Amino acid sequence: MHERTNPGPPPERPPAPQLPPSLEPRGGHSSNPALNDPRALQILSTEHWSLLAGRSLAYNEAFTRAGMFLTALSASVVAIAFVAQADRTGSALPTFTLVLLGFDLFVGLTTYLRLVETTREDLRSVQGMNRIRHAYLEMVPGLAPYFIASDRDDLAGILMTYEGPSREDMMAGRPTISGILHGFSTNTGMVAVVVSLVGASLAGVAIAQIGASMVAIVALGAIVFAVLLAFLLRLGILSITTYSSSTVVRFPSDVAKPPVAGDEG
Questions:
Q1: 68-107: per-residue pLDDT in tens?
Q2: C-alpha closest to that of 179 among 156, 210, 196, 149
Q3: How far apart (Å, rounded) are the C-alpha atoms in residues 136 and 144?
Q4: How far apart are the first and last CA of the chain?
Q5: Neighbours of 254 (CB within 10 A)
Q6: In this predicted model, what pLDDT tens digit does every residue of 213-265 receive, in sequence order?
Q7: What is the 3-state secondary structure (H, E, C) of the chain?
Q8: What are phi and psi of 255, to 5 degrees?
């Protein structure tokens, strides 16, 4: 017979590694009781995807409207060229040009106004996603190092999605080179420039009918271009800067700088 050997107590397991306090998950222990609900994550994710879909629709409409305006402008230029070749006396060309350029100016202005509205709609979607991202970080603060977008819903936090200036510059309203270049690279900025050029061309053709000199035509066109461009850009900037005054900011940006070693005392 074989004697049973006592295997002895099982070996002790090494203690589980302790996470730093900043990486400790806080799921189920958020300061907001609603986030402790197990259904909260699914609801927030659904809303997040809904905002993404709305933002995609706004982008598609903006590109479509800008493309329609540029297509109409191109067709008008081609039509003016055909009329210029067919009009032997030159009596019908000025009137035809004024009518087409006036129509293009109307289409361009309405397109620009719609692009400004879609920009506000996009800002609203980004603000909503920033709030949801803030809720994610309340659930699990340890995920903060993995997010590159802002979790703040004020204007500074929203604009961090679009451009690279610091929060201090955006909160103080200081223009930056990157912000200006970014503005002209957008659909809204590009359409503003083209609409201003159409307005300048229309003014030049109109003043040419009263026998103005080329110097006067060029000078008036430059003035109309500058004034109309400044007005449109000012309108777009006001639409963005006044957006924050029409919404409630729940999670404002913290622009306080961290203390530097050696500055104490």
A1: 999 999 999 999 999 988 877 777 888 999 999 999 999 9
A2: 156
A3: 9
A4: 83
A5: 10
A6: 999 999 999 999 999 999 999 999 899 888 877 888 888 887 444 444 444 43
A7: CCCCCCCCCCCCCCCCCCCCHHHCCCCCCCCCHHHHCCCHHHHHHHHHHHHHHHHHHHHHHHHHHHHHHHHHHHHHHHHHHHHHHHCCCCCCHHHHHHHHHHHHHHHHHHHHHHHHHHHHHHHHHHHHHHHHHHHHHHHCHHHHHHCCCCCCCCHHHHHCCCCCCCHHHHHHCCCCHHHHHHHHHCHHHHHHHHHHHHHHHHHHHHHHCCCCCHHHHHHHHHHHHHHHHHHHHHHHHHHHHCCHHHCCCCCCCCCCCCCCCCCCC
A8: -100, 5
Dihedral, CA of residue 15, residue 16, residue 21 and residue 24, to nearest 10:
-150
CB burial string 42-62: b at 16+ within 10 A, e below? eebeeebeebeeebeebeeeb
Total-model pTM: 0.76
> Are 191 and 217 in contact, with CB atoms under 8 Å apart?
no
Rg (CA), the chain: 30
Structure tokens that stand for 106 in this block: 């109307």
And the tokens for 107? Answer: 């289409």
